[in-house]
């Protein structure tokens, strides 16, 4: 059997790596010798990230087959909790909504201890040095096989830290011969990047002299050298020397870095339309694709300007734009053969700073921001609508890519000096588009925060009642997921009132159906039945087949909760057929899983197995980890009913992991209870006691009486194989309610 693939998310290296031999050896010596915190420090553009990536790749031989080697981008982190969440995400673990820092750190430590030797490359720690130092300081003693390589402008100041300063590349000696000049690190990098910019580039002795002059002007700063080398596509090195300012670092009145100087010099050499395109690209946050740029950039004032894609190609060639990530699913970075339309682009930090200061006065900032908002509001709404259907996984990926831009639209609208109908409407629409991303992978607090801020002035500025109804309904779902049931009920009541004022029967029916689910969660099946019946009557009037299918499933859920399994099975079947008719894959998967659970409780194990297998395939297709965890719970119950106790244990442990990833506390408690009951059946009393205590802690925190009753059923002896079906039936009532 071949060697397993290494566990890593490191990108494939683009372009040759030049120099830094001694630094690489020193990093390796520290990490391999047991030093667990190494920080690479230096100014922007000096090559810390590139060096860290190369050093981390070398460590794959040590960690790749165990815990792994993981790149963690900290540019968006602002708190210690953000740092922990970023690390959890690269490990494939979703943050738990509302969980405290200590809880999340414990989950991270548990994953690291289980994984074995692990290396994190924590990149761009500058903005949150103190927070990174705190988190790393907590993890070092708790996860003995985990080590950290950090890039930052300055050291973290953490105990046991080794700082390695990353300086400029070595310059050529002025007295050296041609061979020595070409071998100098700074010159070698220039030649390498020039060859990438202009195929067949082979410097003459005169060119080598010019190259040495250029890199000396740029103080040997790698990113500055790459920007200059990109110019060789149109200018020979000797011509570049002639165009260099007298001293790049003295371009402005106050002394600036060589990188900032190189950027300013390169921008000065751009055509007016290129300068305008670059400045407008700064409106994007977290990267952008060609379609977005075509919708947002405005170059019609320049008669000689090409189409936007060609303008982007020109800026890419000059190293003023960069490719920020591989196309999803390819596992590789784009190369020259990948069409521009499939690339995701962004501005390097120093370029963004320069671009933001140079916005063409002929392009009003407000008009630019309005085009940016209009594009992402249109795209975001369409993507959010399609994530649960056929092809939904690609839409979910694109929505994740565009999340930073949608957050920027919402924040910019909410930060307006004067709140208007337009600004608050934009903020709410952007936030609602983010629901499939923020409620699945977090940060969950951000979703509720944006809705809070958008709904606060909604009445004052006159936001349409239909939009308010959608926003209240979304916040109700988010609060319900956090078990804030009273606040969720308040939001649903507000959503219903707004839907009625909007005279929107579909929104009214949705609010009433959601209220029915609320009553089901709190044990009021009479109220749930009344609301489901009222919602279904409205949906029949409206004729919305998508929501009608969901309502049929809610009736099945109600019958299931009451114990009328034959009726529940009929309802679920009707719902599944309705979902297939309209292509609603998410709810097809949910109700197929519930159908499997109903068959399981009737003892029809073959039917249950078939349904659960189909449901699992759909949830995995959509990457719906929350519902995948629920199906794993039922899979465990199925194995237990068949007397396959070891298979049941594996399934329940998988369920436990997924419940924790998505922050499903009730599901976590039930999984712990199942595992505890099984441990007691296997006479592992200490393990059983520990698991029951952990489950009880969750129940106490949630103050959920029904969950408490179900846990008691498991604790008091309805344990496989003695009465597996009764245990599954009792615990299943709570699991169904989680949906």
Describe the structure.
- By secondary structure, the chain is mainly alpha-helical.
- 65% of the residues lie in helices and 5% in strands.
- It is built from 37 helices and seven strands.
- The strands form two sheets. A five-stranded parallel beta sheet has the order 2-3-4-1-5, with helices on both faces.
- β3, α6 and β4 form a beta-alpha-beta unit.
- α26 (505-521) packs parallel to α28 and α33 packs antiparallel against α34 (665-681).
- The longest helix has 22 residues, at 365-386.
- The chain is globular and about 90 Å long.
- Residues 247-256, 326-336, 718-727 and 730-739 have low confidence and may be disordered.
**Structural class from helices and strands?**
mainly alpha
Widest sheet: strand ordering:
2-3-4-1-5
Biggest sheet character = 5 strands, parallel
Strand percentage: under 5%
Report the helical percentage: 55-70%
User: Which spans have pLDDT < 50 for at least 5 consecutive residues?
Assistant: 247-256, 326-336, 718-727, 730-739
What is the C-alpha radius of gyration, as a whole number of Å? 29 Å
Number of strands: 7
Shape descriptor reads globular
Question: Secondary-structure map with pairings?
Answer:
Blueprint: H1 21-32, E1 37-41, H2 48-58, H3 60-63, E2 68-73, H4 80-90, H5 101-115, E3 118-123, H6 129-142, E4 146-152, E5 162-165, H7 178-183, H8 185-197, H9 205-217, H10 222-229, H11 237-243, H12 258-268, H13 272-281, H14 290-296, H15 308-317, E6 322-325, E7 344-346, H16 349-356, H17 365-386, H18 392-401, H19 403-414, H20 421-433, H21 435-441, H22 444-455, H23 458-461, H24 465-481, H25 485-502, H26 505-521, H27 525-542, H28 545-562, H29 565-582, H30 585-602, H31 605-622, H32 625-641, H33 645-662, H34 665-681, H35 685-702, H36 705-715, H37 724-738
Parallel strand pairs: 1-4, 1-5, 2-3, 3-4
Antiparallel strand pairs: 6-7
Helix pairs in contact: 4-5, 4-6, 8-9, 8-10, 9-11, 10-12, 13-15, 13-16, 17-18, 17-20, 19-20, 20-22, 20-24, 22-24, 24-25, 24-26, 25-26, 26-27, 26-28, 27-28, 28-29, 28-30, 29-30, 30-31, 30-32, 30-37, 31-32, 32-33, 32-37, 33-34, 34-35, 34-36, 35-36, 36-37
């Amino acid at each position: 059997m071949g060697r397993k693939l290494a566990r890593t998310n490191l990108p494939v290296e683009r372009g040759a790596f030049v120099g830094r031999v001694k630094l690489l050896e020193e990093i390796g010596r520290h990490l391999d010798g047991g030093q667990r915190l190494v920080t690479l420090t230096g100014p922007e553009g000096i090559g810390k990230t590139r060096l860290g990536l190369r050093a981390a790749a070398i460590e794959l031989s040590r960690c790749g087959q165990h815990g792994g080697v993981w790149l963690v981008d900290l540019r968006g982190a602002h708190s210690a909790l953000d740092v922990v969440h970023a690390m959890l995400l690269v490990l494939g673990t979703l943050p738990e909504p509302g969980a405290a820092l200590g809880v999340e750190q414990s989950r991270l430590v548990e994953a690291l201890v289980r994984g074995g030797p692990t290396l994190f490359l924590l990149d761009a720690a500058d903005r949150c040095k103190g927070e990174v130092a705190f988190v790393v300081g907590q993890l070092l003693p708790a996860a003995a096989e985990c080590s950290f390589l950090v890039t930052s402008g300055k050291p973290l100041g953490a105990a046991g830290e080794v700082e390695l300063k990353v300086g400029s590349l070595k310059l050529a000696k002025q007295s050296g011969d041609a061979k020595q000049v070409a071998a100098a690190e700074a010159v070698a990098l220039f030649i390498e990047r020039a060859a990438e910019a202009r195929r067949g580039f082979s410097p003459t002795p005169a060119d080598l002299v010019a190259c040495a002059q250029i890199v000396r002007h740029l103080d040997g700063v790698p990113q500055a050298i790459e920007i200059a080398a990109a110019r060789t596509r149109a200018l020979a090195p000797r011509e570049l020397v002639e165009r260099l300012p007298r001293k790049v670092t003295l371009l402005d009145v106050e002394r600036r870095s060589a990188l900032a100087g190189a950027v300013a010099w390169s921008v000065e050499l751009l055509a007016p339309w290129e300068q305008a395109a670059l400045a407008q690209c700064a409106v994007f946050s977290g990267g952008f694709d060609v379609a977005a740029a075509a919708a947002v950039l405005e170059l019609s004032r320049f008669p000689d300007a090409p189409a936007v894609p060609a303008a982007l190609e020109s800026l890419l060639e000059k190293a003023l734009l960069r490719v920020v990530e591989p196309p999803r699913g390819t596992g590789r970075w784009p190369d020259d053969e990948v069409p521009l339309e499939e690339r995701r682009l962004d501005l390097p930090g120093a370029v963004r700073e320069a671009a933001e200061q140079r916005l063409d006065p002929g392009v009003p900032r407000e008009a630019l921001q309005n085009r940016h908002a209009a594009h992402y509001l249109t795209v975001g709404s369409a993507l959010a609508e399609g994530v649960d259907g056929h092809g939904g996984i690609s839409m979910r990926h694109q929505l994740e890519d565009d999340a930073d831009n949608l957050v920027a639209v919402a924040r910019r609208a909410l930060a307006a000096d004067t709140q208007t109908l337009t600004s608050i409407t934009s903020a709410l629409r952007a936030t609602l588009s983010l629901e499939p991303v923020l409620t699945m992978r977090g940060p969950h607090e951000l979703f509720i925060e944006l809705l809070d801020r958008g709904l606060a002035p909604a009445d004052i500025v006159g936001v349409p009642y239909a939009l308010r109804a959608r926003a209240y309904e979304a916040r109700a779902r988010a609060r319900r997921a956090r078990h804030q049931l009273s606040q969720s009920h308040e939001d649903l009541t507000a959503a219903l009132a707004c839907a009625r004022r909007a005279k929107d029967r579909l929104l009214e029916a949705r609010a009433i159906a959601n209220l029915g689910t609320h009553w089901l969660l709190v044990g009021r099946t009479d109220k749930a039945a009344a609301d489901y019946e009222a919602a279904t009557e409205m949906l029949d009037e409206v004729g919305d087949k998508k929501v009608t299918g969901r309502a049929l499933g809610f009736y099945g859920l109600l019958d299931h909760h009451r114990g009328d399994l034959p009726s529940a099975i009929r309802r679920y079947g009707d719902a599944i057929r309705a979902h297939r008719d309209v292509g609603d894959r998410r709810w097809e998967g949910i109700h197929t899983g519930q159908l499997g659970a109903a068959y399981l409780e009737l003892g029809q194990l073959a039917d249950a197995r078939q349904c659960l297998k189909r449901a699992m395939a759909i949830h995995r297709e959509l990457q719906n980890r929350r519902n995948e965890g629920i199906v794993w719970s039922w899979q465990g119950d199925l194995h237990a009913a068949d007397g396959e106790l070891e298979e049941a244990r594996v399934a329940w442990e998988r369920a436990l992991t997924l419940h924790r990833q998505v922050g499903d506390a009730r599901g976590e408690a039930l999984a712990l209870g199942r595992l505890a009951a099984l441990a007691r059946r296997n006479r592992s009393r200490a393990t059983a006691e520990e698991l029951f205590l952990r489950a009880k802690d969750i129940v106490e925190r949630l103050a959920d009486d029904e969950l408490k009753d179900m846990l008691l059923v498991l604790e008091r002896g309805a344990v496989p194989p003695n009465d597996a079906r009764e245990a599954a039936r009792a615990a299943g009532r709570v699991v169904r309610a989680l949906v």
